[in-house]
Amino acid sequence: MADKDSRAGSRYATAAILEYVDRLHAPHDSGLSAAFEAPAKEKMPAIQLGRSEAKFLELLLRVAGAKKVVEVGTLAGYSAIRIARALPMDGKLWTIELDPRHAEVARNAIAIAGQTANVDVLLGAALDVLPSLEQHGPFDAVFIDADKRNYDGYGRWAARHLRRGGLLLGDNAYLFGKLLDPDPEAEAMRRFHEEAAKDFDTTCLPTPDGLLLGIKR
Ligand SMILES: C[S@@+](CC[C@H](N)C(=O)[O-])C[C@H]1O[C@@H](n2cnc3c(N)ncnc32)[C@H](O)[C@@H]1O
Fold it and tell me: Whole-prediction pTM value?
């Protein structure tokens, strides 16, 4: 997430080092800038992926040869643009967003990035929208980055609709440091972890707020 202390994942990273590597390895063109800067400009929450995390997502999906990807939680389209850039010409990203304003801002940024043909921004609550995508499955990757209390439901949907070898990614897997708390949101996030560990070969990367990564068995 862009607005958290991005040094959390490494004891050696200083703000200056992170600024240097982001600038060098994850530069922005106009489409990425539009999406990255929109939350602050449009008074939306600035909770998009960090620059290097988003570029990591793009590279990972390229290595995996992903063609059909589902994202839960679009915001202003920043991670969606990175995902779309990993896809081949005939690839497709379906990205789901609850807030109509966020979806509109994302569609604009995705157009500036020249990715309209490869990206469908779908408006609605993800648990309601996901069943409408099943006709397009099985999918190569599912990236979850939305309401934390439903991560377990999103994870179960991904386990059913990813192909064997498909990728599951879940941001905020540390739940802002509250993963082990005794409350329903943390319990849902722990179910997401525990069920993913059964259906996928998993790890949880120490990004600022944890990134669960799994390959479907
Ligand atoms: C962390 S942001 C997504 C950031 C985006 N993936 C990025 O890195 O650029 C989470 C988004 O999920 C949306 N959201 C929250 N609950 C949702 C739900 N039930 N279904 C779909 N989207 C939801 C929020 O409105 C918000 O825009």
Answer: 0.96
